């Protein structure tokens, strides 16, 4: 008989990195309501920070409610649409915010049910049985070129176009997130992160760090420190969520 997941614990850390003058990433979570969000803003320092914060706030406002999970996944998609409208509306009121946007990755859980949705190149992973698996697919130009066979993975890592994302909140009138439905097991460890982590660290290194027997707070700190050690060229955010019986 399968052991039911009855609760989730979480920890997160965000860091400016070693090269950027400000931090445009944002995150929030409510383990009580089973909602966890990471966003990576773009459009200049102030604008990027505003876009990511607006998206995180709107997602939490709409999803961190006791009645929300009865309507998944529709509620999550509606929350993304509302976050998109919020960013567009704010940009319309200020010319200096024109063009701002943000990526998004969100995990919503209820007992053994888990949903991950994403827009852009912030990623969602799951560590199970000592193996790290990337759940989300980047909405980026190089990812699309790799899928169509026009670029190899090694070429993508060196490409000057690797920062070009093809889907983001706040850049168009409507946006559709990818949504992945999963079944969680006790000891599963979910990672939500901005590309400031994954651009610096290959999956194998992230996996090795997550396999350490350490509190979630410490694991977050180790991930950020490792990314900074490799250059810290971008803001770094990681959010870890562990399923427990």
Kindly summarize this structure in a few lines:
The protein is α+β, with helices and mostly antiparallel strands.
Task: Note down, in words, how this protein is organized.
The chain is of the alpha+beta class and 245 residues long. It has a single domain, classed as Phosphatase 2c, domain 1. The protein has helices at residues 45-63, 74-92, 141-147, 153-158, 195-198, 203-210, 216-229; strands spanning 7-15, 25-30, 35-42, 101-110, 113-119, 123-128, 131-134, 178-183, 189-193, 236-244. The strands form 2 sheets. The chain has a 5-stranded antiparallel beta sheet. Strand 2 and strand 3 form a beta hairpin. Helix 1 runs antiparallel to helix 2 (74-92). The chain is globular, with a radius of gyration of 17 Å. 45% of the residues are buried.
Q: Which runs of at least 5 residues are low in confidence (pLDDT < 50)?
A: none
The averaged pLDDT comes out at: 91
The spatial strand order of the largest sheet comes to 1-10-9-6-7
What is the CATH topology assignment? Phosphatase 2c, domain 1
Instruction: Determine and state the CATH class.
Output: Alpha Beta
Proportion of residues in β-strands: 25-35%
User: Structural class given helices, strands, pairing?
Assistant: alpha+beta
Helix segment tally = 7
Cα-atom radius of gyration: 17 Å
């Amino acid at each position: 008989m399968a052991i039911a997941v009855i609760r989730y614990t979480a920890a997160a850390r965000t860091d400016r990195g070693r090269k950027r003058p400000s931090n445009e990433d944002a995150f929030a979570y409510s383990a009580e309501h089973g909602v966890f969000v990471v966003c990576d803003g773009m459009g200049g320092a102030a604008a990027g920070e505003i876009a990511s914060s607006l998206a995180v706030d709107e997602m939490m406002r709409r999803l961190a409610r006791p009645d929300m999970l009865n309507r998944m996944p529709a509620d999550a998609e509606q929350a993304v649409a509302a976050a998109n409208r919020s960013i567009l509306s704010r940009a319309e009121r200020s010319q200096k915010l024109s063009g701002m946007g943000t990526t998004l990755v969100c995990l919503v859980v209820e007992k053994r049910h888990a949903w991950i949705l994403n827009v852009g190149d912030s990623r969602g992973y799951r560590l199970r049985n000592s193996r790290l698996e990337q759940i989300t697919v980047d909405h980026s130009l190089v990812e699309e070129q790799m899928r169509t066979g026009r670029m190899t993975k090694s070429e993508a890592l060196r490409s000057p176009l690797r920062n070009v994302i093809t889907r983001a909140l706040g850049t168009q009138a409507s946006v559709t997130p990818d949504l992945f439905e999963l079944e969680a097991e006790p000891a599963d460890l979910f990672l939500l992160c901005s590309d400031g982590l994954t651009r610096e660290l290959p999956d194998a290194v992230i996996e090795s760090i997550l396999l350490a027997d350490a509190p979630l707070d410490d694991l977050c700190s180790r991930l950020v420190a490792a990314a900074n050690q490799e250059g810290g060229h971008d803001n770094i955010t990681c959010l870890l969520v562990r399923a427990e019986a």
